[in-house]
Amino acid sequence: MANDQLENLKDLIDEIEEYLEDDNFADVSQQLNVLKPAQITRILERLSDRHRAFVYLLLDKDLALRVFEGLSPVLQSDLVNALQDHDTAELFLGLAPDDRVWLLDELPATVASKLLQGLDVDERAQTSALLGYPEESIGRRMSPQFITLREDNTAADALARVQSRLRSAETVYYLPVIDSGRRVLGAVTLRELMGADKTQRVEDLMGPVRTAEVTEDAEAVARRTARRGTFALSVVDHEERLVGIFTLDDAVRILEHEDSEDVSRQGGVEPLRRPYLSTPVSRLVRSRITWLLVLAVGATLTVQVLSVFEATLEQVTVLALFVPLLIGTGGNTGNQAATTVTRALALHDIEPRDIVRVLTRELRTGFMLGLLLGSLGFVITALIYEFEVGLVIGLTLLAVCAVAAAVGGVMPLLARAIKVDPAVFSNPFISTFVDATGLIIYFMIAKAILQI
């Protein structure tokens, strides 16, 4: 079913591009305006910048805003730059303040300033307030549009208040309860209000409230929200006064963004932050070239190690046959450990202070993996070549796996300790490091056993 939908989408995109090439805009409009916003979003993600702007202008006004909200901030930025000033200002005004901040982070400063000036006083104040918080903080991602209640409100009064502010609030399903100093006392849900007696007071309905401080890291708060499965939480300042709310859908958006960055950097590329098919080839090259240059320089270390042990290889040429096997196994073992530990860090299962425990566990894990692989390598190599050569391979696999697992497990923790993204210590970088150390171990063991 999913494959059929994908094929239909591809056919539709091909058809739209043909209409655009023929300047047949009426048929494009007819095709698009009967689709769901999510379907149109996927189509826009696959079009070129020029065609994307044309197609967007052909959408009905209400549909266009819903589609714009579904685009990634980078594609929103591209679209803003491609549209006329009037269309851009209208789109910007239609966004919620926290969504505007996502977009402003992707725009040049001059364009961002111009858009802010086009807002009315209240909207500009709300958006500017969010922009004033640190870049990675939850304050920059919270919504300042929420409905508050007082503990002495009746259920009827509370529902009337919700009804009067339906259009201006981010959500009406989570309602913080505050005192006269805007300090959060609790929270009540719309379900609880609707199910209560009209004369029942809010203080009898409200439950304990979960809060986050406005300067906390956005990713950490997002993971906490997703892990608890709460619909929303209250964001407070250092004096515990309510300044915003943070909803589950915003948490999912942040986690998708952060996980995408981590996966990219672990693979040795910079994150694209936009759909693949809408990314220019020049951008793809820039995202990869830096890491390739770094890794190429790092690989020279492996070449240096081989040159140092050149005489050893000349005496026992069979050793050269196993170099790819050994460095490949070491690299893969290190990558597995790094990926596991990086994920555990993201989920707050471990912290940098657990480095000794992680090192011990990864050494044991690597030793057991090396024992299994080394035993297999020893038996096969000893049968095909000689007993001594088999012993060299077996012991090297044992040592390399233990060292690689330890290095791969510790590096992300060291990165977090020095305030660097653990994903920056990407798997290719670990592979390069382990390749060199693995070769040194290999040739040292070979010289000791083979007496060369």
TrEMBL record:
Organism: Yaniella flava
Full protein name: Magnesium transporter MgtE
Family according to the record: Belongs to the SLC41A transporter family.
Entry keywords, A to Z: CBS domain, Cell membrane, Magnesium, Membrane, Metal-binding, Transmembrane, Transmembrane helix, Transport
CBS domain mapped to chain residues: 142-205
InterPro entries (alphabetical): CBS_dom, CBS_dom_sf, Mg_transptr_MgtE_intracell_dom, MgtE_N_sf, MgtE_transporter, SLC41_membr_dom, SLC41_membr_dom_sf
Subunit structure, as described in the record: Homodimer.
SMART domains from the UniProt entry: CBS, MgtE_N
